[in-house]
Specification:
353 residues, mainly alpha, 19 helices
Length: 353
């Protein structure tokens, strides 16, 4: 367990540093208090191993003034127009649509799903590596897609295939736009926290929450591809004013990545439940299923918190009123979940990246 040593020489600096990332959240919220204490302790631990506080220049996003935005900030350059342009240029991996066809047929079997997934060698390899990781903790080794389907079920295997395919789709984004490894590590972290939380929240849908967490920020990738300069300005606005990224996007664009993500996943015919998770992860109490969206919102805050003592740049977005109460968790559950996350993040990240 992490313990805060308030007598340590670096405590005042660590406390002040972490406090800046929690400016937007309710300082009296029991979940945020617990998360704050763990984050300060983790920051002190990082300092003891040689980590140093980032400089102001390191914390600010890289500017891309040399890039021209494909669209301008006008009414006609909304989420739908950006998604239409992207989907005309490149198609989503064919294996997913074949999988959707199988799932939509009432007579389809687990073998049908396994056969479709098995046609993509790279997808199969990543899927099997993931389900054999400590995150799933099966006592036996899973050596085939049919075996995975028999243990996890059709829906979870299909959702995992969906998430892996989405990561592959966006691998061509130039590095000057966004550090893709950092982006996907955050996304994978949200997926891990979502899965860990789902196991502890009564009524949460464990089949889709890992993938829902993994894809929660997918709309940000479209924004970076189509509006690189404006997207960077939104990040600078967020960092300079200690605002959550989602609020900074609304200031700059007039909409945010949740709307773009909803539009994109709708165009790709994703399951409605997955679309809702992405769309409402910052406003879970407005979702058709507030419980699952609240899981992803808390997971997003926890993922942001673990990034702080590793050079994370952006403040926690906070929890919607009523979301924490809907989950029925104790603040004492936060620290053990952070420690469980530490056991999984590197291996799961290597699986995807």
């Amino acid at each position: 367990m992490y313990q805060i040593d308030t007598s340590a020489a670096n405590f005042p600096e660590a406390d002040n540093y972490v406090r800046g990332f929690f400016l937007y959240v309710d300082p009296d919220h029991e979940a945020m208090v617990a998360l704050y204490r763990v984050t300060v302790a983790r920051t002190l631990a990082a300092l003891r191993t040689g980590w140093t506080f980032p400089t102001i220049d390191q914390l600010m996003p890289r500017n891309v003034e040399h890039l021209r935005d494909m669209f301008y900030q006008e009414q006609e350059s909304g989420a739908q127009e950006m998604v239409d342009a992207e989907t005309k240029i490149a198609s989503f991996p064919d294996v997913y649509f074949r999988l959707r066809e199988v799932l939509d047929r009432p007579t389809s079997s687990a073998d049908d799903v396994a056969n479709v997934v098995g046609t993509d060698v790279a997808l199969t390899a990543k899927l099997l590596k993931l389900v054999n990781s400590p995150l799933y903790a099966f006592a036996e080794r899973i050596d085939s897609v049919p075996h995975a389907v028999s243990l996890l079920g059709v829906r979870e295997v299909s959702n995992l295939a969906l998430g892996i395919s989405t990561i592959n789709f966006f691998k061509d984004i130039p590095p000057e736009l966004i550090d893709m490894r950092t982006f996907w590590k955050h996304s994978i972290s949200v997926g891990i926290f979502s899965k860990l939380l789902a196991a502890r929240v009564r009524g949460a849908n464990t089949e889709r929450l890992f993938t829902g967490g993994l894809l929660h920020d997918v709309g940000r990738l479209i924004l970076f591809k189509k509006l690189p300069y404006a997207s960077t300005q939104a990040l600078i606005h967020a960092r300079s004013n200690m605002l959550p990224v989602v609020d900074a996007e609304a200031d700059v664009f007039g909409y945010d990545h949740t709307e773009v993500g909803r539009t994109l996943l709708t165009a790709w015919n994703f399951p409605q439940e997955m679309i809702d998770l992405v769309h409402y992860h910052h406003t879970p109490m407005d979702a058709p299923d507030p419980l699952d969206a609240a899981v992803v919102q808390l997971a997003d805050n926890m993922a942001n918190a673990v990034e702080i003592p590793a050079g994370g740049k952006f403040v926690l977005p906070g929890l919607s009123a009523g979301a924490w109460e809907r989950l029925g968790l104790s603040p004492q559950s936060i620290e053990p979940l952070m420690e469980l996350y530490d056991l999984h993040i590197e291996e799961v990240t290597e699986t995807f990246l």
